[in-house]
Amino acid sequence: MIGLFGLLMQVGCMHAHHLTTMSDIHAPEDFSQGRLVESEANQVVVLGLASDTNFVVDAYRDLGLQCPDGTVTGIQSRYSTALNFMRWEHTVRMWGYCFD
Amino acid sequence: MRWMVLLTALASVGCTHLRSFSVTTIPEDRSRPVEAAGQRIVVLGINATNDFADTLVADLAEQCPDGRVSGIITRYEVAMVVPIFAYAHRVYVSGHCVTATGVGAQ
Amino acid sequence: MEHSAPYGVTMSPLLLALSTIGCMKMHAIQVGEIDAKAVENGERFEIKLSAIGVSTEDLGDIAEKLSRSRESRDETAIVSDIIELSQLGPRTGEPVFNPQFADRLHREILTRCPSGRVTGLVTIRETADYPGITGEIVKAVGYCGGEQ
Question: What is the largest CA-CA distance in chain C?
């Protein structure tokens, strides 16, 4: 039984796609001058116990850190959850265009 | 008694779930962060209004009277307060105050 | 009883047809800034990206109903429960195999609007419900031609 539970803990190939959003697009110059930047943040939740949702702010801040002296616009965000046995992992992934 | 202790322990750790979020363009000037938050405790799922989120824009504007709030991330989460009976619905908004003459102003 | 037979004959094809249409559910919507002139004069575009979602609960129910014996029904129920337990977590719509199906949305938008002058961008997360499976959809509608 322990072996079965252990096996089930490893099984997980399904994901819940919660949302995909796009921010406004305000390029300060010609859009071809922008470079793609991306970031990702995760949160593992066991038995539903999670104290906060700050991981999404981390992803947004990390995106900005890759363009420290510029503007990041046209930001696409994806929020999904990898489902599993008694635990799941939230993922927030962001892409944006940096104009230095 | 054991179940009460277990439930209290679980509630203290927290069961917080991110429901949705949105972001806007990140400005160049990020020297003045601003933030606001609103919360409503919903008991037994009975919620008459969501007006707790209505004051957020005014709260942010108050912190940035001479400029424009940009680089806004808005997130909506639900946290367990009392297992099964009460949940806290929270909206957090944070951004950067960019003045009209600032480098990052758009 | 005599009335049920004609209804049975006429309703079945109707139900079958209705089941193929599906039921649409909206989960989230976001509306961006709007440049009214660009909406009026610009070019509208629409992008739909989707993946098949699997309702293991529905498929388990169908498998149970198709089981011939009580024993196989019980076994099917156990397997179905185990599969459900191995996919715990918050859900929006039904689970998909690939959560990255909409990751190319920003590229698709820029393909439609290379200048990047997009306005009135609406992003919708929705589900098309069918028996046993769903279509998990991200839709984006916008107008190309706004001001920088």
Answer: 70
Q: Do B17 and C90 make contact, defined as CB atoms within 8 angstroms? A: yes
In Å, how far is C16's CA from the nearest CA of chain B? 35
Contact between chains at B20 and A49 (C-beta distance less than 8 A): no
Residue C143: φ, ψ to 5°: -130, 135
Quote ipTM for the complex: 0.84
Closest to C49 measured CA to CA, from C108, C4, C90? C108
- The pTM score is 0.83
Distance CA C119, CA C31 (A): 10
Q: Please, where are the H alpha helices in chain A?
A: 2-10, 55-65
* b/e burial code for range C122-148 (CB count within 10 A of at least 16 → b): bbbbbbbbbebbbbbbbbbebbbbbee
Q: Phi, psi (5° rounding) for residue A6?
A: -60, -40
Q: Give the gap in angstroms from C-alpha B62 to the nearest C-alpha of chain C.
A: 22
Beta bridge partners of C125: C28, C138
Confidence of residue C36 (pLDDT cuts 50, 70, 90): confident
Quick check: C121 and A22 CB within 8 A?
Answer: yes
